[in-house]
Amino acid sequence: MEIIQRSSSIPMSAITPDSTSSAGHETPLIDVAKVGATRANAATGPLIDVRDLSLRFSTGSEILAAVNLEVKQGEFVALLGPSGCGKSTLLRVMAGLIHSTGGEVTIDGLEPASARKNRHPLAFVFQDPTLLPWRTVRDNIRLPLELQGVPYAEQMKAVEASLPLIGLTTADATKRPRSLSGGMRMRVSLARALVTNPHILFMDEPFAALDDVLRQQLNEEVLALSRQKQWTCVFVTHNVAEAAFMADRVLVMRSKPGAIARVIEVPFAHPRTAALRESAEFAQFAGQVNRELREVMSW
Ligand SMILES: Nc1ncnc2c1ncn2[C@@H]1O[C@H](COP(=O)(O)OP(=O)(O)OP(=O)(O)O)[C@@H](O)[C@H]1O
């Protein structure tokens, strides 16, 4: 198998919320088998455009330097790289949560904050679910709508519609976070992102705290859902197999300062299921991505 690799400025996309783990008999988020290759593979210009981005915190050295990348609408892009190379920082800059000190990020030609408000709602999913313990599942999920001033009846309607999509029942909706497994809390966190009907989903290691079986299950379900909803996704992970399984493109970052060192196109068709993960072809590809990562880390 040939890995297509380019070297610096490139296209991609991705992200959403949080978690913890459980050995879990989890209800599927979505029936993966029913979701084919339905997402438009937009051949248009980039939705997210990062140009010559640099960032230096006031406290120290340059964290990101000369970062160039593009993410097309509907793409799923994974950011992979050594710990501390700046993956989360880059994700936050792309989402408009922090400002760069050089270069620019645009989403559909606008600054992220403006794009989010006017044209492209986005959601951010963190590793920790950050659910409010005193609120029920339903009240946690509707929180972003409440903060936006959406009428209560509409909030409730949106919550009810989101529950089956992320494998939660009406009975689950009345529970408090403390009575949920880690996987269920993650599902609530995903529902909280989903309820805002985002165009762009930024995910920062959302499955890192889950056990392998549940992690793989959620990889499949979230990937299928992202294709069904045609989300543009930027996904940070340390896990090579996860990146290879979920992404259209894997961006390998180097550190000190953080920059895109490799862009690897993922050659697998959709839908991607457990059978792909168990194939020799997948093992070979993941091995090759791993070698790329190790090479970058040795620089
Ligand atoms: N607010 C901040 N002020 C100063 N330095 C920061 C700040 N946030 C992050 N850093 C530093 O920026 C660097 C990149 O951090 P970042 O969390 O983006 O890396 P990462 O690749 O996501 O790491 P990991 O994979 O371990 O989560 C680190 O050296 C970190 O200490």
UniProtKB/TrEMBL annotation:
Domain of life: Bacteria
CDD domains, A to Z: ABC_NrtD_SsuB_transporters
Location of the ABC transporter domain: 48-280
Keywords assigned by UniProt, alphabetized: ATP-binding, Nucleotide-binding, Transport
SUPFAM superfamilies for the chain: P-loop containing nucleoside triphosphate hydrolases
UniProt protein name: ABC transporter related protein
GO molecular function terms listed in the Swiss-Prot or TrEMBL record: ATP binding; ATP hydrolysis activity
Region: Disordered, residue numbers: 1-25
Biased composition (Polar residues): 1-24
Origin species: Planctopirus limnophila (strain ATCC 43296 / DSM 3776 / IFAM 1008 / Mu 290)
